[in-house]
Amino acid sequence: MTFKIGLQLYSVREVLKADPYGTLAKVAEAGFKYIEAANHNAATDDGVGFGVPAVQMKESMEALGLSIVGCHINPLNLDRLPAILEYHQTLGNKQIGCDIEFYPYYDLEYVLRRCELFNKVGEMCKAYGMRYYYHNHYQEFQKIGDQTIYEIIMSNTDPSLVFIEMDTYWMTRGGQDPLQMMEKYKDRLVLLHQKDFPRNAPQPIVMFDGVVDLNQEITDAVFTETKDPLCFTEIGTGILPIQDILDAAETAPHLEYILLEQDHTQLEEIESIQTSMQAFQKFSIMK
């Protein structure tokens, strides 16, 4: 199987704010044909976070040879979803996702209520001929009882309605083996985020090895304060077993796109994605 390589636009969020169309042009020039957006303004913006009408956005992407293959929607609001889904239908996007949820993880009932919401979002997406997916960070690998939050989410959501976008970096930083996780949940895996961890990082690779207490509440502030920018490097230049991850991903029947993403960089954002695309060429699964 040959995967298509795309970019999560969060990687270029600062230049995107300053110059949306110019940045998309540079993304295309860097060799990317597929993009995933991250709309953190979904309370007021139906689209990809640019405040641009759907038809105009579609024309702009088509002119650059870009296709949208997913979009994070934050916040999730059932009343807002119909307009959001209609916007993405116009773009030709087939799936939307949830990019981060700061639960009070000690509260099982709250987590279960969110699972109910995810099922409802999945039902709405299905009615529009689309899919809903959940994206992980490392918080989901804390435990309530003998189960991780991720296991609770997976066992309390409908596999036909709630799919997953695995972030192998954050799974690793949560103390998980992404190869085993892909095997376990391969039938629900529809997108994969690939980051990389630098050789000389200032933190241990597992966040629970002295960076964050496994049992503490991970709030937005805790997540932000402990996410060290020096613990990210251009994809293909670090120590994560990317070829092994790509090989394992071949068993996932619904997975078509590998999305490169960089939360932080020591380079200019466009230079960073250019470097990642070039470094990623060495891996055997490219299209």
Automatic annotation (TrEMBL):
SUPFAM superfamilies: Xylose isomerase-like. Transmembrane segments: none annotated. Pfam families: AP_endonuc_2. Keywords: Isomerase. One of its GO terms (molecular function) is isomerase activity. This is Sugar phosphate isomerase/epimerase family protein. Signal peptide: none annotated.
